[in-house]
Design brief:
Elements: H1 25-36, E1 41-44, E2 47-50, E3 62-66, E4 72-76, E5 83-84, H2 86-94, H3 98-109, H4 147-166, H5 172-180, H6 185-190
Antiparallel strand pairs: 1-2, 2-3, 3-4, 4-5
Domain Zinc finger CHC2-type: 48-106
Keywords: Metal-binding, Zinc, Zinc-finger
GO molecular function: DNA binding; DNA-directed RNA polymerase activity; zinc ion binding
């Protein structure tokens, strides 16, 4: 979905709040589609839906909408259950700080002078610095699997692949899920993609 940005002409320097409003809806759609690998479809005015990029979504539970304050928001009605603004989404995607997310968004918009917020996001925790280990860590090369292990794994892969392909009606949801991700029957067969149903 290609949207041409309609950027308001601010006489004063825009704030971080200004650049997350409905005036920037089209750039937000473009950014989310390009950087999250999703495709939005319009559902009504200022409302769009897509598959959530933050969990294995089987329904289009990810929404982009404009709230009562004209702020563009993202909401997942699926496993995430989160409600975010553009900065939260960038923080989740890039694993960066709130300040960095503001800069990334301003740069994407081509804005040089923006009044950034110096605080923290209310929804997404700041990424932790990598702690130093207490003791030195030794890395071991993984052991080569034995012929018996390889044979057992190949047998299990073949079993679950045959199970998946044996009843397309029973496993239609699984096959539809795989097809939406570009995995059609020849690929499923070639790479022994299978499905292990719940026992309960």
């Amino acid at each position: 979905m290609t949207h041409s940005p309609v950027i308001p002409d601010y006489s004063a320097m825009p704030s971080h709040n200004d650049i997350k409003t409905v005036a920037y809806l089209d750039p937000m759609l473009n950014y989310a589609e390009a950087h999250l690998g999703i495709r939005f479809r319009p559902t009504e005015k200022y409302r769009y839906s897509a598959f959530c990029p933050f969990h294995a979504d089987t329904k289009d539970s990810f929404r982009l909408y404009v709230d009562g304050n004209d702020v563009v928001r993202f909401h997942c009605f699926g496993a995430c259950g989160g409600d975010w603004d553009i900065y939260d989404v960038i923080m989740l995607r890039e694993k960066c700080s709130f300040r960095q997310a503001q800069r990334i968004w301003a740069d994407y918009l081509g804005l040089k002078d923006v009044e950034f917020h110096s605080g923290r996001s209310q929804n997404i925790p700041e990424p932790d610095a990598e702690p130093e280990p207490d003791d030195s860590v030794e890395f071991l090369e993984p052991a080569e699997p034995t012929d018996q292990t390889k044979a057992t794994l190949a047998e299990a892969a073949g079993f679950y692949n045959e199970l998946l392909l044996s009843d397309s009606e029973k496993y239609s949801k699984v096959l539809t899920y795989l097809a939406r991700r570009g995995l059609e029957s020849p690929i499923i067969e070639r790479f022994q993609i299978g499905y292990s149903p719940s026992l309960y």
